[in-house]
Design a protein that fits this description.
Blueprint (H helix, E strand, L loop, with lengths): L25 E11 L6 H24 L3 H12 L4 H12 L5 E7 L3 E11 H5 L25 H37 L13 H4 L4 E6 L5 E5 L7 E8 L7 E6 L10 E2 L2
Parallel strand pairs: 7-8
Antiparallel strand pairs: 1-3, 2-3, 4-5, 5-6, 6-7
Helix pairs in contact: 1-3, 3-5
């Protein structure tokens, strides 16, 4: 992945206060997240990203505590008896935790970054029981490439999956924003769009990583990315729309990834 020497910087601050009491296992979290705006991003985009990352970290924290409960261990053994990996159980819990959101207590926009503060309180024992014990017989293999784990509602699983895809794609946008910036700088200096990545001083190996399989430039500033990892087989394309706008270069974006509602990139087949 590209580093931030090209002018893109992200600052992340996370504060977690964790505590529980017996016999009821409870959890209290105070969270804070700071996200710096990438080139051309609006206040809403930056603050939404901060809240999304905060929620993802909340779910990680919840699962780490749930995994220490007796209820989780019982389910882990039951899944094992059915030949199901622990990762399937963890995904079942994550899909159930999808609805758990931090309570936002404050948001501040400076013009270049967004700071979000939130709080979350939970009954861990109740959360640990959300995933039902699997049925006595192994669940039949579904036709879908991404079937829901045992006991997980298909609609909840679909929302969860699209949310994970959206989060993965948002991570790709750090690289996209840096490449866009260099493309615009090239256009400003030459009056033409660059013909390839080398024209803007970027080698392919700088772009390739765990989420990007390949990136290349086509005519008129069209940037195309073949995605990797969880999004293997999907692609993202972005291109400049109006270089003469008073707000600078504006970009269009399409992707084959299903990002659910309020997508920041148009979905195409």
């Amino acid at each position: 992945m590209m580093n931030h020497n090209g002018g893109v910087m992200r600052i992340v601050v996370v504060v977690l206060l964790l505590g529980w009491s017996l016999p009821a296992l409870s959890m209290s979290l105070a969270l804070a997240k700071v996200e710096r705006a990438e080139d051309g991003e609006t206040e809403r985009q930056v603050c939404d990203r901060a809240l999304t990352k905060m929620t993802e970290e909340l779910h990680v924290s919840l699962l780490s505590v749930i995994s220490a409960t007796d209820a989780y261990e019982q389910r882990r053994l039951a899944y094992k008896d059915q030949g199901l990996e622990q990762a399937v159980l963890d995904d079942a819990y994550r899909s159930q935790l999808f609805a758990e959101k931090p309570d936002v207590q404050g948001r501040r926009w400076t013009g270049s970054r967004c700071s979000v503060r939130a709080r979350y309180d939970a009954d861990i024992d109740a959360l640990a029981l959300r995933v039902p014990m699997p049925a006595g017989n192994p669940a039949p293999v579904a036709e879908s490439d991404n079937p829901p784990p045992p006991g997980v509602d298909p609609k909840t699983w679909e929302l969860f999956s699209s949310s994970r895809d959206r989060a993965e794609l948002s991570q790709v946008f750090g690289t996209v924003a840096a490449l866009r910036m260099r493309i615009v700088e090239y256009y400003a200096m030459t009056g033409d769009w660059p013909e390839d990545l080398s024209s803007i001083g970027v080698a392919p190996e700088q772009v390739v990583g765990e989420r990007i399989k390949r990136a290349y430039l086509l005519q008129d500033g069209l940037l195309k990315l073949e995605l990797a990892g969880r999004l293997e087989g999907h692609s993202l394309s972005t291109w400049p729309m109006d270089a003469g706008s008073v707000r600078g270069v504006e970009w269009q974006c399409t992707t084959t990834v299903n990002m659910g509602p309020n997508s920041f990139c148009e979905q195409v087949e």
